[in-house]
Each structure stands twice: as C-alpha cells, then as structure tokens.
Amino acid sequence: MMNKRISRLILTLLFSGFVFFAACSKPEVHDALDKPISLQDMKGKWILLNYWADWCAPCSQEIPALNQINQKYKNKVAVLAINFDELPKSQLQQSIRENKINYPVVTKSFGARFFGISDIKSLPVTYVINSDRKIVKELYGAQTVESFKDAIGLV
Fold first, then answer.
1. 3-state secondary structure labels for all residues of 46-60
2. Minimal CA–CA distance to 136: which of 39, 75, 41, 48?
C-alpha cells in the first residue's frame, strides 16, 4: 500500500516537473538578430507574416507601416518578416539595420513549418494569420497602416 502511494507521489512529481519545464522551455525559434521568439507569446494574436527583399521598392515602402503596427498593436498583433532571398546572416542583419526593421525577421523554413507557406507569387506579400494560426488573407503589394488594420479588423 505504501509503495503505491510512493509510486503515485513520484509520478505526480515527475509529471509536475515536466509541465513546469515545458512551460519554461526555451523559445522554439530565434530571429535573424538571435533574439528569441516565443510562439506561446503569439497565442491569441493576429500574425502579419511579411515576405520582403532588399531590391523590392514596394517592400521598403511598407516597412514603416509594419513598424507602426508592431509598436502600436503589439498586444493584439505579432509582426514577423521573412527575407525572400535568404541572405547570409551577417548580410541580413545589416539589411535589417539599414531598413530600420523593428520586428523579428525569421527564416523561410519558419513560414513553411508553422504555416505551410512555400511558394511566393510576388513581393511584397503579407499573410494575415488569425489567432487560430490559419491564413485568412494574402495582401500583395505595398500596404499601409490602414490596409493592415482593415485586414485584421482593428478599429
């Protein structure tokens, strides 16, 4: 009888420890600047997943709008970017600084892994992803703060 109680106690402690460590585990990914990105922090938020390139003028035009959305609505929206050209890390970091991108830049594999995005038709494109992590809209061409807000339904 005592052995069963001890066994249950040990199993309960092991399970509790697993839940604690799972909740405190490291983020699943890092951005191009090696900052951690927690997918758990995005839970319940809209996601704007933007594909861009240095040579794409409309891509550069919408960066300030994405920066503004990222700053003003960070409690409701997660803004992420993916460099279409998959630049080498040092070159990508330089491009992020030069373009004054203030939101995380992740890899193409991130888009494919978490949202099934693999084929991009044109640039720029922003995938509007709801809180259930489903793509609900694709926005092609340079967007504005207002067009992003409209796509998400922000007032």
1. EEEEEEECCCCHHHH
2. 48
- Give the HSE-up count for residue 65: Cα atoms under 13 Å, Cβ half-sphere: 18
Residue 16, C-beta contacts closer than 8 angstroms, at least 6 positions apart: none
Dihedral of alpha carbons 70, 73, 75, 78, sign: negative
The structural domains of the chain, ordered by start, are 29-152 (3.40.30.10)
Angle between helices 145-152 and 57-72 (to 10 degrees): 60
Mean pLDDT in the chain?
Answer: 85
Q: Is the predicted pLDDT of residue 55 greater than 50, yes or no? A: yes
Asked if residue 136 lies in contact with residue 128, where contact means CB atoms within 8 angstroms, the answer is yes
Using pLDDT thresholds of 50, 70 and 90, give the confidence band for residue 5.
Answer: low
Question: What is the enclosing helix (H) or strand (E) of 135?
Answer: strand 135-140
User: What are 135's two structure tokens?
Assistant: 């793509």
> Peptide bond preceding 64: is omega within 30 degrees of 0, i.e. cis?
no
Q: Is the pLDDT of residue 72 over 60?
A: yes
Query: pTM for this one?
Result: 0.80
Instruction: Say what the pLDDT of residue 118 is.
Output: 83
CA distance 38 to 80: 12
